[in-house]
Structure formats: C-alpha cells, structure tokens
Amino acid sequence: MKKILEKNMLLISIAMSILIMCGLKIEFIASSNYLGFTSRANDIMYLIVDVAIAILIYYCAKIKEKKLYIISIIVGIIFSICYYLGDIQNSYIYTYVPTSKKFLLYSIIKLLTYFVLFSNCVIMLFWKIPNILNKFNCKKEWKYFTNNKKSLFVIALIFFLSYVPFFLYYYPGNVNTDSVGSLYQITGISKFTNFQPILYTLLLGGLWNIGKAIFGSSTAGIAVYTLFQMICTSITFSFILYYMAKRRVDLKWRIITFLFLILNPLNGWFVVRCEKGILFHLSLILVTIGIMDIVYEKEKFFERKWKIIGLAIITLLMVFIRNNGIYGVILTIPFLILGCKKIYKQIIGLFGAIIVCMLIIQGPIFKVLEISYSSSGEALSIPIQQFARISKYAEDRMSEKDKEVVNRYFKVNHEQLANDYMPWKSDATKSNFLSEEFSKDKKTFILQYFEFAVKFPVQTISALVLNTGNNYSPNFKIWGIIRDYGTETQDAYETLSIGGSEVIDNFIEKYPLEGKPIVNFSYLQKLNDIVMKGNIPIISNIFDNIGLYFWIMILCIAYCIYKKQYQDIIMMLPILGLWITAIAAPMVDIRYIYPMFLGIPIFMGIIGKNSKENI
Questions:
Q1: Model's pTM, two decimal places?
Q2: Of 197, 270, 178, which is closest to residue 229 (Cα–Cα)?
Q3: Nearest-CA neighbor of 294 among 264, 263, 331, 332?
C-alpha cells in the first residue's frame, strides 16, 4: 500500500489540490440555506493556485519526519480554526450564525480544507527555515547597528528625526478620550482614580503643566508630552537593535528590524498620541528584554545589581502605567523558574518583591490617598457582550427569570441593551453595566453567564468570537475602528460630550488645545486612509494585522518546540500574556496588543540565531 501511494503521489497531490480549491470556493447562503458554488471558477488564477498547492503537497509528502508532522498538524488545527472563525466574523457579524445541517457540513468542509492547506505550509516552512537562515549569514560588522553606546544614540537620533514629520503635521499631538480623563483629574474637575492609571495621569499632567508654565499655553503643554514620548520611543527602538547585536543576531536581520521599525507609519502615529498605551508598550518590551537576559545570562544577571534594580523599576513602571501589565509577568514566572532552576531563589526574590510592592501601593497607599479603582465592567466585556447578544438574537427563548437578571445588572432593560449591542465593541453595552450591583452580588451574574452558555451555546460563542475578531483571525475584514489620527482630539471631545457637554465645554474654554499642522505633510493623511483601511495587499498586513502577528508568534513557539529550543519560548510569554488579556478587552484594537508587533522581530532574530548555533 505504501509503495502504491508513493508511486502515485503526483496524481494524489493533484487530486487533493483540486479538492482544496473546491473547499476554498464553496459558499453557504444563509437566507436560502444553499450550499454550493455561486460563481464560475474558470479563471486562470484558479489553475495557477491549484498547481502551486499540488506542488506543495507533493514535496511535503517526500519529507519523512514524524515530529515535524505532529507539530504541523497541531499548528494546522489552530490556524484552520482561527481562519474559519474569521470567515464567521466576516459573514455574520451583523446577524445570527446559522445552525442548519448544511451549515454544519459547510463548516466541516472549510475546516478540513484549511487544515490540509495550513499544515502543509507549516511542514514546508519549517523544513526550509535552515536554508533561509543561511541567507542571513554575514561576517561583516558595521560601525552602527552594533552594541556600542555611540550606535545606540545615533540610531535613537535617526528614529527621533523620523517622527518629526508626524509631530509637525499632528501638532501638538493627538489627545484621546482617556487622556482627557487624566487631565480632568489633574485640573480638579474629577477625583483621582486608577481607571486611568495614576502614574500615567501624573506624568502627563506634570509635563503638561511644565509646558504651560514655560510657553504659556495648554497646546504647548501637550507638545512637551509628545516630545517626551518621541524621545522614549526612539531610545527604546534603538535599544532593541542594541540588544539584538548583543545577542549576536545576524546583521542583516538587525537591518530588516530597523527598516520595519522606522518605515511602519503605525509607529509614527502612535508616538504622537497622548495615551497611556505607548509608554506601557515600551516598558513591556524592556521587561521582555530583561527576562531574556535572565534566561540567557542566568547567574551573571544577578551578579550585576544595576540590572536587578533596572528590571524591577521598569516592571513596576509597566504595571502602574497599565493595570493589566502584571498578568504577563505572572504567566512568565513559573516557566522562568523551570527554565532557570539554579537561580530560582533569585527569580522568586526579584519578582516577589515587585508583586509585594505593587500590592502595597495599589492597596493600603491608594486607600489612604482615596484613589479609587476602575469599574468592574472593564474586565467583564465577555459576559456583558453575551448578555446583550442573547437579548438581541434569542429574546424569544429567554425566560422571565433570564430577563430579570439581565435587567438587574444594567441601567437599561434587555430590549434597550439589545439595541445598543455592537458585536465588535462592548463600549455601548459596558457603559450601561451597573458595577455597584455586580459588587453586591457577583454570584448571580456569574451563574447566569454559565446558564446562558449552556442554554444558548451558539450565541455565547458568537458573542466571544465577534468581539475578539482580529486578535487571532488574519482574514478578519470587518474592522471595528478605522482610526483617523488627524481628528482624534476632536473625536475625543465629541465622545465626552455625549450625555451632556457642559464639563467638556468648560474644559476646552479654560484649557484650549489648538491642533493645527505646523507643516502640511499631507502624505501622512493619505497613508492613514490607505494603510488603516487595509487597501494595500501584503503591506497593510505587515503594518496592522493583529491576527497575522499572533500566527507568527504561534509559529515561533512551534518552531522552538520542533528544535527543542524550549528556553526561547520563555521570552515570548509576557506578550502572550498580554494577548490573553486583550481577548477580554472591550474591542479589538492594535493599541491593546501593540508590543506583539514590536516583539516579533526580536523573537524571530534570536530564535533564528539560536537555531543556527544548534545545527
């Protein structure tokens, strides 16, 4: 049998490629419960793709390595599920997900098609990676892109200069809704709260006041903060290249990383945004690099006190700039101890001290200073969206008790909650959540969530999938936020005026922010329109596709397992932990998972370097 299969592998590959093409082309129309082909498929492009798939399957069949097949199967399953969920989001985000037998058959066909295609791609990719890595061999070393201080500051200056056009065009910088909330606290309009992390509020407010004092305007105050953020970003990006050189990552890959960081306009847009995210992202990257140092230097790391103190300070800054920063660290600690058993006491001591310090500051000290915490609704987007979706698409099957529970935990009744429901964004439903009622009785709310999950499994899964979208599906097309970076401040004002504009109007009158380009670099607006709307094949994916970067991280982890580079997985865990928390975020947004974009080039470079050394 084996010989017959090998002898006829070419015919089998062609047959499988035709089946895959049919699986890719097949469609389901919910309105008529139709499963089949709705358009002709005689375009020459189908033939070209079919031949490419046949060649892929044929050559993958020649690879005889059991471990590679097992890992590729696992990755293929993950990718096929993620991609299929992307299909679901694209087709049914504005309606209910079908449950007919034909739709079930359609789902099975799609999942099998994607599985065969993706698993074969992974096999070929992993098989060819050693050859790809050899292309990066470079014995030359340049004066720059190295681990010397001169290179560090020169490259940082280049990064800073690349952001100047963004600063001049978006002057004084874009202020989002959250940052206006921080300025409310600084100016005494509202009480201090950790809803906007207090450290960020004090930092923004301090630099804003310095700018006002020196230059005499609120606009200049925002500009001072934006310049500070530009400096921090430039130094951190340069340090990424510095550290990659220290770890002996190939020069060619360091140059590619430099080009990725400097040419991606997303970095420029983010760096001129007054928002807690960018400082958090930078600090998380530095914490990740610190964890890499522990993994690769082990005892030597703890012999240098400045490294211990530096990592502790950066970690605390990260935690206090965004409240969910600690979760990635907590996820990493057990694996860090397993990977560095000889220094487990030092690791426990370092991170234990950090966690204790965090708990003391956010506990007794915040209580004494009367700094309140964020609304519990911020962490409950998943069940809130479930309640809203079931109220919208399964109201006729809800019992009176179900409706009473929903009405109890929201300011509006279940009918209005259904009207407010947006599948990709929980802000509208979350704003009506009664945190006080939840604090009084968490048990009933939680039990109702699980009761709904059992009673309405399709709507429960749909609510989760449609709200998490692009976090794992690179084919997700219905983008919840097409951000216009040129109008963010005005958009924030309009958002804050909903329900009453008196407070924001008084704030604007007293502290006017005059956003006006100093130099009209109009190409930045054109880039905004083109890139953020995903209109450029491949380029738009590289710039802003969260699902793509999640897939790359999965591939990095899988390749580490395949090559037994288990310690390399540890460095990715802080950002993987952040990704997990992003699933519970109110919406899909790059600003929640931006460190993944910055971290992937580092991970790929170090994994590739270690892989070559192990050959």
A1: 0.91
A2: 270
A3: 332
